[in-house]
Structure formats: structure tokens, C-alpha cells
Design goal:
- There is one protein chain.
- The protein has helices at residues 2-45, 47-51, 53-63, 79-90, 103-116, 127-137, 209-224, 238-252, 254-260, 294-302, 317-320, 334-342, 347-354; strands at 155-156, 162-163, 178-179, 189-190, 207-208, 230-233, 274-278, 308-312, 325-331.
- The chain is of the alpha+beta class.
- The protein has two domains: 65-137, PGBD-like superfamily/PGBD (Muramoyl-pentapeptide Carboxypeptidase, domain 1), CATH 1.10.101; 162-354, Muramoyl-pentapeptide Carboxypeptidase, domain 2.
- Helix 8 packs across helix 9 (254-260).
- The longest helix has 44 residues, at 2-45.
- The structure holds zinc ion (ZN).
- Zinc ion (ZN) binds next to strand 7.
Length: 355
């Protein structure tokens, strides 16, 4: 009995020792696991990152500037422009970070849009541009800066005119002292679905895509208002303008022709951003009386809502160097159209303010 008890006690002690040892071995692991789990789940719940999202944002912006969420265009200034410029520089564009949406920024955005979003080439930064730039940053989209529109400074030609360096810019200034390159043919010409007083499929029905879409919207609104607008003449190539000007010179002489007709390269119609409009009330002619028709009056009030301006207004002949043309509409985008119209400016005056 005593022996048995002795062995039994020894056995029980050994068994207890093993049990305790096993328990002791197990003990350090469990809390460690639990701690790891806690710390994993705790990380995102860290009150600092929840309550101070700026902490995380600051870390992000040191590597990756935040792309602006609002539209930006020439003349805009500030932190958002600077952020956009940082991204463009990161994407390989050799521009300066100036905080000002300058000609270099317009060029970079235009070139970028030509390579990625052929339908909306404007030089204006939009949410669509933002999405595409994000793809470039994520290496999902490859571009070659300057491939579509090589960087060029505006140069003076032999006859002291400025040769336009970015013909795709929506605010491009084309006039008797700013000429388009002879070779410029917009690559995004389309025929807007609007009324023309003729049925032939002529090139003059065309406009650049952003302008054509805006024209369609304007015509739809005119229809609703019961206004009988017709489109008469849009895109005109350099060579077509050459023969029109030559015909006008032989008819009326060069000096007279220059007052109502443009030399090749100096016609806004070559930009693809222009449409001459008319109405049955003036037999579809392009004459000053159009300005007094219901259609002429309607566009004076509403064209800017769709991004168009009356490019050669009454009383501004000294600046535009053209007589009043109530029929000649030029697309500049909604923001510029509103500012130009509300302040009774010409495109010359507006663009000068931006540069
Ligand atoms: Zn015109």
C-alpha cells in the first residue's frame, strides 16, 4: 500500500509536471497570437489615422500629388494647378511648376489628350483627363510626351505674324496677326447633326468634335425655343481659303478683300471651331441683317451658354480688324464664353489678359 502510494504519488507528480510544462509551453503562444491579431486589426482603427486623415494624405502627397477634381484651364492659378503640373512632370512633360495654367501646361494637356482621348482635345483639364492621367501614373497607359504635338514656341513669320504653336487649343487666337500653319488639318473633324440649307456632303459642314457636340446642344435648345437656326459654313482648309481669298482679290482688290475675307492661315474657319449660322428670314445669307432676326437675337443671348461667342461684335472692329458679323460663331468653351460675353470682350482682349 505504502509502495503503491509512493509510486502512485511519483506518477501523479510526473503527470502533473508534464501537464504544467505543456500548459506553460502553450501559454506564451496564445497571447502572442492574440496580440498579433489585435495589432493587425488595430492598425486601421488607429485613432490617429481615423481622426487625422491629413497625416496619411501628407505622406501620399510627398510621392504622389493629388490630381484636381475640378476643371482647370488657361489662366487658372493655385495649388490645384501646381498639383496637376507635378503629375505632368512625373509623366515626363518638360514643363515648369509655376502654379499658373500657362501655355506650357495647355500644350502638355493637349498633347496628352491627343494621345489618349482623341474625341475631346481641348487643352482644358477635365475629369476625363484626370482618369486617364491616373492610368498613366498606375502604369496602365503609356504615352510619349510631345509625340502627338511637339513643343514649339510661337514664332514670328517673315511678315511679322505669329505662327500659332498649338492650333488644338480651344482658346487659340487666329486673326490677321496670328496665323495657323499651312499644314494644319484638325484630326477630330466631324459633321454635327444640325440643319444645313443644302444637302450635299461638303467639308464645310464639319467642325472639331468638342465644337460639334456643343453646336448640336445649342441647335436642340434653339428648336425648343422655336427658333429656326441653320448652319451654313464650318471648317475650311488652308487651300480652300487660298482660293476664296484669291477670288475676292480679283473681284474687289486686295485692300477691300482683306476687310471681309481672311488670308489663308488667318481664317478662324481653319481651326474647325467656327460655324457661320443663318436663318430663312435672311434667305440663308450671311448678312448684317441676320443680327435683327429672332435667330440672330436668340444667339446673342444664348450662344455663350453652349460655349460660343459672336467673334466679331459690333463696335469692336478696331480690335478684331473685321466688320460686325452676327453670324460667325466661335467655340471657346463655356467658361471663356461666359466671361467674354458678360464683359463684352473680344477673344483678343480675353486672351491677352490670360497671357
Ligand atoms: Zn465665318
Amino acid at each position: 500500500m505504502i509502495m503503491f502510494n509512493k509510486y502512485c504519488r511519483t506518477f501523479i507528480l510526473m503527470a502533473l509536471t508534464i501537464l504544467i510544462a505543456t500548459a506553460c509551453n502553450a501559454t506564451p503562444n496564445e497571447p502572442t497570437d492574440t496580440k498579433e491579431n489585435v495589432s493587425e486589426t488595430a492598425t486601421p482603427k488607429n485613432p490617429d489615422s481615423q481622426q487625422n486623415p491629413q497625416v496619411d494624405k501628407q505622406d501620399d502627397t510627398t510621392n504622389k500629388p493629388t490630381l484636381p477634381f475640378s476643371e482647370l484651364q488657361k489662366g487658372d492659378t493655385g495649388k490645384q494647378v501646381s498639383n496637376l503640373q507635378q503629375v505632368l512632370i512625373q509623366a515626363g512633360y518638360a514643363i515648369k511648376n509655376t502654379d499658373v495654367y500657362d501655355s506650357e501646361t495647355v500644350w502638355a494637356i493637349t498633347d496628352f489628350q491627343m494621345q489618349t482621348s482623341k474625341e475631346m482635345i481641348t487643352g482644358i483639364y477635365t475629369l476625363k483627363t484626370k482618369q486617364l492621367l491616373e492610368k498613366v501614373l498606375a502604369n496602365q497607359l503609356a504615352i510619349t510626351p510631345g509625340k502627338a504635338l511637339p513643343w514649339k514656341k510661337s514664332e514670328l513669320t517673315a511678315d511679322k505674324k505669329v505662327e500659332v504653336s498649338n492650333p488644338y487649343e480651344i482658346l487659340v487666337l487666329v486673326n490677321k496677326s496670328h496665323a495657323l500653319p499651312e499644314t494644319f488639318i484638325p484630326e477630330d473633324l466631324v459633321t454635327p447633326a444640325v440643319r444645313f440649307p443644302f444637302s450635299e456632303d461638303l467639308p464645310k459642314k464639319q467642325m472639331r468634335k468638342p465644337a460639334a457636340e456643343a453646336l448640336e446642344k445649342m441647335f436642340a435648345a434653339a428648336d425648343k425655343a422655336g427658333v429656326d437656326l441653320f448652319a451654313q459654313s464650318g471648317y475650311r482648309s488652308f487651300t480652300r481659303q487660298q482660293s476664296i481669298f484669291a477670288a475676292n482679290v480679283s473681284k474687289n482688290g486686295e485692300e477691300a478683300a482683306n476687310k471681309y475675307s481672311a488670308r489663308p492661315g488667318e481664317s478662324e474657319h481653319q481651326t474647325g471651331l467656327t460655324m457661320d449660322v443663318t436663318s430663312p428670314a435672311v434667305s440663308f445669307d450671311l448678312i448684317i441683317e441676320f443680327g435683327e432676326t429672332p435667330e440672330g437675337k436668340w444667339i446673342q443671348t444664348h450662344a455663350s451658354e453652349f460655349g460660343f461667342i459672336i467673334r466679331y461684335p459690333k463696335g469692336k472692329e478696331e480690335i478684331t480688324k473685321y466688320q460686325y458679323e452676327p453670324w460667325h460663331l466661335r467655340f471657346v468653351g463655356k467658361k471663356a464664353a461666359k466671361e467674354i460675353t458678360d464683359n463684352k470682350l473680344t477673344l483678343e482682349e480675353y486672351v491677352e489678359k490670360l497671357n
